[in-house]
Design brief:
single chain; 587 residues; alpha+beta; 20-stranded antiparallel β-sheet; two-stranded antiparallel sheet; 22 strands; 37% helix
Amino acid sequence: MWIVMRPARLACTLSLTLLLALALAVPACPQSPVDPAQLPGHTSFYLFWHGAPSGEIRKNNSLYALWDDPDFAAARTAWLDSFLNEAQSAKASDKPKLSREELAQYAALLDNAFVVGAIREPEALAAKRAAAGANAKDIPAWNGTFFIYDRTGKEELLSKAALRMQSEGTDIPKLSNLTVAGVSALKIERKSGVTYWAEFGKNAVAASDESVFGQIVQVVNAKSSGPTLGRVPSYVEAKPLLAGGVLEFFAAVPNLKEFALDQNGSAPPSSKMFLDAIKLDAVHCIAGHVVLDGAKTHVEGALLGDAAAGSLFDIWAGGTANPASLAYVSADTIYYSESQFNLPGIYQTLRRAFLQGPNNSAQLVSVVESAAQTRLGMQLADALAIPTGEMAWLQTSPTFDDSQKAYLLGIADKASALKLTRTLLGDRISSEKSEGNVTYMKVSLGGGQSSTGIAQWNFYHVAVTPSLIIGAAKTDTLRRYVNQTATPDAALAKNIAAVRAKYPEKLNGFSYFDFQKVDWPGLQAKWIAEAQKAAEKAKSNDAAKTDKKFADWLTGVKPEVFPRHLHTMAGASWKDAKGVHFDEWLE
């Protein structure tokens, strides 16, 4: 069927599958093809689609309501036609095209539950690959991907889809029957790879490696006797994040490191040394789920592990309860996003990794640090301590006019920040003046001053305050942000405070989007004009076609449909001893 998978294709396949699942699935009574805890213990990752939601859940959810709205019909049709055209573009011209009716028919397969995952390469094969050295390229690349599908009520449709998939492609597949793990299976050989496929009981199973196929068949038939994923510590750690919802995902990060390194045959020793030096093994797994909670679509997940100092977790800041940028949120704010990074931690992590690299790495680090000190007039570590790591941006324009957007960067000390800014920008600073405790700068993005004269253009405007560096495309936009009351608008602040109160006190990331304040007709007109202009200036036919398709799609959208179903979107992230957590919801 779908599954002659390579890692590069897997992400694309999953994205399209999920998009189609959310967009086209109809009410169903989901079954479970397998308990993920019973998967082999050396499973690197899996994604579990629990099946289409029931009628009431779909009816109440804002995203489904948007998709089903009659006023979205033209946009929905245009999107499906675009998807079909893209899907057919890579196929042989003499093959029959997939019609919109057939797509809708096959989309019904997404009513049922399925699991897509991968098993890491066996240690014996990995050792053989390592021993082969330069000849490792002669050993076939490992492909441990697998697919399990609950075919209950879809037996005929699934067989039809499988036959269609087998007929596609430029080469004629070689088909052979065999028995694996006591199950009759079909081996499909193409130039691009091999697929093992079987339909038995209520399930269908596919894999690209016979040993993987056999293991998954045994799991499905409850005959597996080996270690299971449910006993793996990282899975046990992630289990609270894998309960409920329409979708769940799990990836064992150290296993994925091995999975990634083994895909290209023999990975360079420097790659392995780098991953070891950044202590990737301190990150145990990434896991989460998607829940349809009334009108809300809720995504909850985490990057779990040992977050003690000296590991990859150092790149994330501990967070704060009152970020400086929050004071610039006003009643006009459409979108606010704030993140905090541990810049010294990122630097020390990379420095440690390079110092433990090949023999000349330490010398390279010394050269880079020396050059940075000469350029900055201070040690690199000291320069990275000047920013607080807080980065944010605000948008107040209902049509997303870029000239009304402001970028904010947190600073620990204004005097040091000014010194560093002058050093970095140098001859690009066109003018500078202070007003009270704020220093304004006009910066050229297109050129600088020299002994022969001034050649500057494309100006940007910057204000350095005691706690932030604020940038905007227009000086009046910049001054509006700087001069507004330091206390956020009461009503909006109360709303945002209510959202923030759901999370831990200290956050290292927060975002809030008010869809109701967007001028949807104006935004539509703006995007159509930009897409048409881009199509006219496109340097290739493909780019021009893409921009024109987007403009045509926007033309068919009735803008009033969006505020009818979309109200707010918010999310947050935070760090604790267990890792980095993220939580997003859309209503």
